[in-house]
Amino acid sequence: MASTLSPQRFDEIEDKLKDVMDPELGVNIVDLGLIYDLAWDDENDALLISMTLTSAGCPLTDVIEEETAQALDGTVEQFRINWVWMPPWGPEKITDDGREMMRALGFSM
Question: pTM for this one?
Answer without folding.
Answer: 0.92
